[in-house]
Design a protein that fits this description.
The complex is a heterodimer. Chain A is of the alpha+beta class. Chain A has a domain of 159 residues: Beta Barrel (Thrombin, subunit H), CATH 2.40.10.340. Chain A is 38% helix and 23% strand. A 6-stranded antiparallel β-barrel of chain A has the order 1-2-5-4-3-12. Chain A has a 6-stranded antiparallel β-barrel with strand order 6-7-8-11-10-9. Chain B has a single domain, classed as Arp2/3 complex 21 kDa subunit ARPC3 (Orthogonal Bundle). The longest helix of chain B has 32 residues. Classes of the chains: A alpha+beta, B mainly alpha.
């Protein structure tokens, strides 16, 4: 029995490893997401007030200490105060999201985080929006703090976001102040790792890191990501890897926005357009126009 | 026997829902408690290695399928069936020790589960965690699960007694949990 099950597990691992994201095992995973997603969604809706309850326990305690006589009333009001606290928190979160959307002129659709994966080495969350809401794999996900991640799997009603904290993906970013580019990768619960393209580049203290539009991705340009953590003794000379502290609190994701109008990078990239018209309208980033100029002259 | 399989399926579904929806709210240093592993340990301690292996395999497979595409399907199944087997073996040595021993086994098994998962993940190139992060995770999750273990182990012990298996008949009489007929 033991041997049989170990063998089955090993065969599954091998098959999944060889087939990658397109094989039958991955399809099985998507099937499980299609079936279990709505169940998780319903359960999340049912237990959401419990979180609000725990967050309002502190308030309840101080009220009791102030006035024992109010306890009876409190019991009656508890249900109400719980939902009000939860609603206020949600309200603040949604307001911040609206601000984010207007600032970057993104066309987005809001999604609620329903569930997280069951094991510790998987950095993704499940959203309650799917293909029916117009989302597709590859789209960027943001919240009020900045970039959250990108969609990897989408079913009709639900979708999975690979968080920025996941070590499995790298993101093109740049230092907002200097335009120096680099690649950002997650390291789980620890700060992000930023590898600069030019290790000699000077990094200003507390430099802000923003996304860098890059061919083949749908991540919008200049979405904030985090702040470079300056070591107390200053940067080492030519340090290639820098720590970046994210703006987004990945443990407290509630409502996020899926960006529907990310840069649609043309698959059929027209080479003639590049040569004849190097000044074609592009995202207004200094290094990008430099790159276009270089290609035009060369 | 049908009642018993239904009970275990219900336990697994509940554990998966709690693990994916409720537990993430209460993380410690970015690490989450592992309720699914606790149910594996609980049932293995109540019933012994065969149940630990089968339930562990089923629970791990379900976890894998509910994870993102970067998760290798079968990895958790392998880890949790090992944990179920180990916890089932540990039952023999717990015999007459007070309940506290069970909780210690649960904590240790949870740390083992996370450690195995992390190390296998690195070996199979499924994720890039550092050894330090895995050690920290083993410590945090082990302690966290140790604290939570009475909440899971005591009800599971009661459930397992309420729906007893057939230990005399051994593995062959116990159907697996995918609804297949028992291996005769």
């Amino acid at each position: 029995m033991l041997a049989v099950l170990v063998l089955v597990a090993l065969v599954l691992i091998t098959v999944d490893y060889r087939q990658g994201g397109s094989g039958s095992v991955a399809a099985l995973q998507r099937g499980a997401m299609t079936v279990f997603g709505p169940v998780q969604d319903g359960f999340a809706t049912a237990v959401r007030p419990i979180g609000g309850f725990f967050s309002s326990i502190g308030q309840l305690g101080s009220l009791r200490a102030e006035n024992q006589a109010l306890q009876a009333d409190l019991e009656e009001l508890r249900q109400g105060s719980v939902s009000v606290a939860a609603l206020e928190q949600e309200n603040a979160e949604l307001r911040a999201l609206v601000g984010m959307q207007q600032q970057y002129q993104l066309v987005t659709t809001g999604g609620r985080v329903v569930a997280q994966p069951p094991n510790a080495f998987e950095w993704s969350v499940l959203l309650d929006v799917g293909a029916d809401d117009g989302v597709a794999p590859g789209m960027a996900v943001v919240n009020a703090g900045g970039l959250v991640g990108k969609l990897t799997e989408v079913t009709r009603t639900h979708s999975r976001v690979q968080l920025l904290t996941s070590p499995s993906a790298g993101y093109a970013v740049r230092i907002a102040a200097t335009g120096e580019t680099g690649t950002l990768s997650g390291r789980g619960a620890r700060p992000f790792q930023l590898e600069m393209s030019d290790p000699e580049a000077a990094i200003p203290p507390d430099a802000e890191v923003v996304t860098h539009a890059f061919q083949g991705t749908e991540i919008p340009d200049a979405v904030p990501v985090g702040v470079v953590e300056t070591p107390p003794e200053g940067f080492e000379e030519g340090a290639r890897f820098l720590d970046v502290r994210p703006y987004v609190d990945f443990t407290q994701l509630g409502v996020v926005l899926v960006v529907l109008n990310g840069p649609q990078q043309p698959e059929e990239f027209d080479p003639e357009a590049l040569v004849d018209d190097p000044e074609a309208p592009r995202p207004p980033t200094p290094d990008r126009s430099e790159a276009a100029g270089a290609e035009g002259t060369g | 026997m049908v009642a018993r399989v239904t009970m275990m399926t219900a336990v697994l579904l509940t554990a998966l829902l709690v693990q994916t929806v409720v537990v993430p709210t209460f993380d410690v240093l970015g690490w989450r408690a592992d309720v699914v592993t606790l149910t594996v340990v609980g049932l293995a301690l109540a019933d012994g290695p065969p149940t630990g292996i089968r339930y562990g395999f089923a629970a791990g497979l379900a976890s894998d399928l509910l994870s993102g595409a970067t998760q290798l399907v079968g990895l958790s199944a392998l880890v949790l069936l090992t944990v179920g087997y180990a916890a089932g073996l540990a039952r023999r040595y717990l015999g007459s020790t007070p309940l506290g021993g069970q909780f210690l086994v649960a904590g240790a098994a949870s740390a083992l589960s996370l450690g195995l998962h992390g190390v296998l993940g690195i070996l199979l190139d499924a994720q890039q965690s550092s050894g330090g992060a895995i050690l920290q995770g083993m410590l945090v999750v082990g302690l966290y699960n140790l604290v939570l273990s009475p909440l899971v182990l005591l009800p599971l012990g009661t459930l397992a007694r309420r729906f007893p298996g057939n230990p005399a008949a051994g593995a062959s009489a116990t159907p697996s949990y995918h609804g297949r007929p028992p291996r005769a």
